[in-house]
Design brief:
The protein is mainly beta and 317 residues long. Helices cover 5% and strands 38% of the residues. It contains three helices and 18 strands. Strands 1, 2, 4, 5, 6, 7, 9 and 10 form an eight-stranded antiparallel sheet that branches. Strands 12-18-17-14-15 form a five-stranded mixed sheet, with no helix packed on it. β9 and β10 (173-175) form a beta hairpin.
Length: 317
Amino acid sequence: MIRGLIAIVFASATAAVADVSFLGMPLDCVLGETCVIEDYPDVDPTDATSDYRCGLKTRDGHSGTDFALLSFEQMDAGVRVIAAADGRVEAIRNTRPDQPYVPGTDLNGQECGNAVRINRGNGYQSVYCHMKLGSVRVTPGQRVVKGQLLGEVGLSGLTNYPHLHLTITQGADIIDPFAPGKTNACAETRNTLWLEPPRYVDAGLFTVGVSNAVPDLAQVQSGAARRTTLSPMDAMVLYAHAFHGDAHDRIDFTMIGPDGEVFTHSAYLEDDQAQLMRAYGKRAPDAGWVKGAYRGYVQLVRGRTILAVRHADVIVE
């Protein structure tokens, strides 16, 4: 089992000596088509946040790189987590349920969920978090090679959306694989641990939510717009708060309910915008919405490339 894993994952990041690139993709997906990088490691040691390009795609204290799937349905179908490099398995966990995290729940130090920790043998370790219950296919002490199946993407631990969280460590230090050894978040870097570095895009989605009316940006930013329940006769509006959108980018809205698709809609940006809010929805049908669980997905798309995806759930009761 993974003793001490979380202590490693949430240790303070410090500089490391760059090594020869050795990392490949840690899951069987295509960035921009079937998955996206949702968050990078936070390289700012203060309460502020910054990814390695001085961008917004991180959270305070975030220790790894998040590779997000596009939907829960994709997770259910199965997406393979694979070894990003050769190494030896040091520890696993394969007992956590797949369920969205409920704030306030005590995870007993198992925030990483079902996981695998691999020692590269060159001073680096890799930790793969939030894997699907029962999917882990390796055992402690086993040697693995780059591309070997480790398990599947799941929803275990401290997460509310199916994704793989990959943390790279060197001893007790967290290493940003995009810029190892970098001490100034805004300095140019040519070092990377990736064999083929994923392309960086600064655009993304701050948040997605469901409301009973089209909100304004202030309501979205404060959280006042968000509804977790609706009555059968309420309007159903899906909204998105995005950043660094370019002219001609597209925001796709899809709402799915107990009886299938409720609506789908695309909104196009006319100009470059540092931040923006878009929303789309429908009035309730004459008989009211069917009671039950509804889920909305929003994607930010540039050309044929999916840049970001987020979801929001609501219950009609």
